[in-house]
């Protein structure tokens, strides 16, 4: 299974939804980076994605985007192949 990294905050409902979707897809470990407690982590997220909102999700080295992007990828059938790559 591909490595999944998610930039998040502890109070973000979209982060919870993203984690739930990933777990339903069989992801057992998510590298979670809390940008709410670390200015350095937030700066890293912005530098990598150009976005300021959470969650920001990576599967392997590929930036997926936020929860809406992840959900759209699942609906289109593209999520499983990425996770299994």
From TrEMBL:
All residue ranges annotated as the Glutaredoxin domain in the record: 4-64
Superkingdom to which the source organism belongs: Bacteria
Keywords: Cytoplasm, Disulfide bond, Electron transport, Redox-active center, Transport
Alphabetical list of Gene3D superfamilies matching this protein: Glutaredoxin
Claim: Electron transport is one of the keywords in the record: yes
InterPro entries tied to this protein: GLR_AS, Glutaredoxin, Glutaredoxin_subgr, GRX_bact, Thioredoxin-like_sf
Family: Belongs to the glutaredoxin family.
Function: Has a glutathione-disulfide oxidoreductase activity in the presence of NADPH and glutathione reductase. Reduces low molecular weight disulfides and proteins.
Descriptive protein name: Glutaredoxin
């Amino acid at each position: 299974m591909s490595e999944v990294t998610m930039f998040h905050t502890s109070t973000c409902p979209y982060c919870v939804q993203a984690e739930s979707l990933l777990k339903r897809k069989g992801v057992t470990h998510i590298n979670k980076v809390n940008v709410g407690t670390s200015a350095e982590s937030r700066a890293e997220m912005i530098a990598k994605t150009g976005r300021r909102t959470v969650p920001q999700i990576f599967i392997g080295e590929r930036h997926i985007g936020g929860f809406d992007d992840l959900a759209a990828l699942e609906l289109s059938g593209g999520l499983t192949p990425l996770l299994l790559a």
